Fold this sequence. Notes:
By secondary structure, the protein is mainly α. It has 12 helices and no strands. The longest helix is centred in the last third of the chain and has 29 residues, at 218-246.
Amino acid sequence: MQNNSSPPGILNCMILCLLGVIWGASFMSIGVALRDAGPLSIAAIRVAIAAVILFIAMRIMGQRLPTLVDRKLWFCVVGMGLFTNAIPFTLLGLSIQYVPTAFAGIAMAAIPLLVLPLAHLFVPNESLTPIKAIGFSLGFLGVLVLIGITDIFSADSVLIARLGCVAAALCYAVGSVITRIAPPSHPIVFSTGGLVVASIVMIPIALALEELPTEISASSLLALLYLGLGPTALATILLVRVIQTAGPSFMSLVNYQVPVWSVIFGVAFLNEAFPGNFLTALALILVGLALSQAGQKRFGRYPSA
Length: 305
């Protein structure tokens, strides 16, 4: 993937803010769609819609999916499709049935922190320095506060759902590392391939394990369309543009916006409660994120919810 170090410019700044809003609203949209559709169906529908749109965009750009001969690239494409799309989308859908959407959004702020130990193990020249270790420790403490330290050994459905959100963030971190070590390819080709893989996996699973909704409200239908068109398709196209013109380091700034917008949408439109520990957890995670990313080379793709 290309890395351009030129100044981002006003347009890229506006796109970055728009991406924060698009991804931040995705958690609210999952909550709305769950009123009439199951979590597996939601995951399958959004990846299928996005796969079709990105495939068309890819062909318009004169790009093609890699040939089957390129096994290493396809191995990474499959890994990215599973860990950045199929698995976390399913986990978030299952979890948001029991926890506020704002909770899920804040949990996603831990993605860059969870990348650190994985990158240390699997990515050359990405060692865990002392300052990164301090940032990771602070962020991990924030994750524990978010989950609920006093409830960590209980086994109720809410705790399991909270752990599911963190597991989704871990999946996104794995997907980021896979993207980092993948052979060179055009970003939209890599993303389209991942969504095609996710569709092939999720559609049969959803059809086998869930009944298709026979009645769906206008709000749920709009939420499903938004999930496919917005954070899964349009955001990827915008992301490609920002990475190519402003670089992955600038793109990483979106990590600070998404959890804030997820809280705003959840509280404003779904009337979700806003417990005080959310603020403490978010502060610890964001401070840890700032320390851990200070002066380092960021990964070029923010896995969206």
